[in-house]
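Example record

The entry below shows one chain as it appears in the dataset: sequence first, then structure tokens.
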Amino acid sequence: MKRSRDGERGIALLVTLLVLVLVVALANEIFRLGARAAQTSAYGRDSIRCALLAEAGTGAARIALRQDAKDNPFDTLDEFWSRQVPPFELGDGVVRVFVEDEERKINLNLLVLPNGNAPDEQRLAVFQRFLTRQGIDAALADAFVDWLDRDESPRVGGAESSFYSALPYPYDSKNDLFDTVEEIRLVRGVTPEIFAKILSFVTVTSSGKVNINTAPKEVLTSLSAGTDASEGGAIDDRQAEELIAYREEHPFRKPEDIGNVSPFFRDLYSRTRLRDLIDVRSTVFHVRSAGEVGGTVRTIDALGLREGNEVQWRFWRLE
């Protein structure tokens, strides 16, 4: 009952924040809006109002994430920023806000070492296991490494510029980090079907450590891969579900708390490099905020980096 009441209070707080930020946004923009309204069509006026509503939503999300950082040193799926917030009506407008931490995903940019000259074998093994469990040929991981590394020597299942330059619409292998998740569609072997299948589980912007309080089963079952996996065993569906059930009642406050789930996880954490891949804190958040007025919708897609109690936007796009 207490958890339910806390959740209701959290949603109420987020709605209150949304209203406050919206009032500020409207106060700052009312003169500009009035001037434009005299010169634009109804669609134009609605578009501006939608953009303001969407901006208010991102502002509310930013405040919620800052407040959460003050409340506890770990992040879970049972906090007001991570709970699904119902659409909020304001006059004839509606705001929808979605917040998701990127630490629940596998960071593709870390498949290569910081010098860019060789793969990170541990993280590569994790990604290969993830692909296999999704019914995708693990050799596709080689193409990701070739896109990222600085050389032009293709791996067994990979491709470099010699392949991409021979395509009907040629381009070079980037040999550098991904800037956006959408960029992975340029990698050899990434079909629309594969892109759709892995999109929810990969990122190119995160700390690189998976938050075991928020990660889905598909990511959790991939973490026990690498050269030392045989020492601890592999996380299967049953064990991942056991972890998820445990964290719902007992959120992990520090990474080593994973050992409290079962002797299997205790041994896995103490005997393998799993401890280098996990955390209980999230630092990068994906925020989508949509404002709708009269059938017109504008959406802000943003990535925020939280450092301490501050959130700085690293990516911002108005659609």
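Notes for this example: Residues 37 and 182 are 35 Å apart (CA to CA). The longest strand covers residues 296-307.
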